[in-house]
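thread: overnight batch results

M.L. [08:02]
morning all. the overnight job finished for the chain we discussed friday. pasting input first so we're all looking at the same thing
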Amino acid sequence: MQNANLMRVIDRRKGLPVALGILYIHVAQAQGWRCNGTNFPAHFLVRLESDEAVTMVDPFYGGQELDRDALERRLESLIGEGAELEPEHCAAVGNRAVLIRLQNNIKLRAIQDGDLARAAEILHTMVLIAPDQAASRCELAALHARQGEVKAAIRLLEDFVVETTDRRARDSAAAYLDRFRSRLH
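M.L. [08:03]
and the structure it wrote out:
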């Protein structure tokens, strides 16, 4: 957990790629540079932009700059041979998406440790950070159901289905909702 705690990451000078990336982004933006996190799969990268070029940087490896070939090799090493670099992998994402990615890392570690109550707390925080993301709501509902709290899972998804304007998110949540309702019958 020290690897996700920004204060500990600063003190120790090591941490999760996304935690280090948050620090890179903050410093770069404080200097007036255009800098964002990215959607790169399985490993967090930072995108620096100038009027002339875009540079992809890996905060975990000391700010190593990655050209297209290096990005493709990195992707293959993470995802598997034949993985193809897509434009969305290098697309800039907002601060909320970066924070959700950090929270997701923390949640995964809680689940690996078998601490489902902690995972539920983190998912609840993720829902507060990004209330219109169906994935976090559905995962939190599934975690409630897994802990025998099926009615809580149903309430969570019912509220989301009513609140969301995103049809795909509503459909995804509704499918989970049907599954949980069938457990009660």
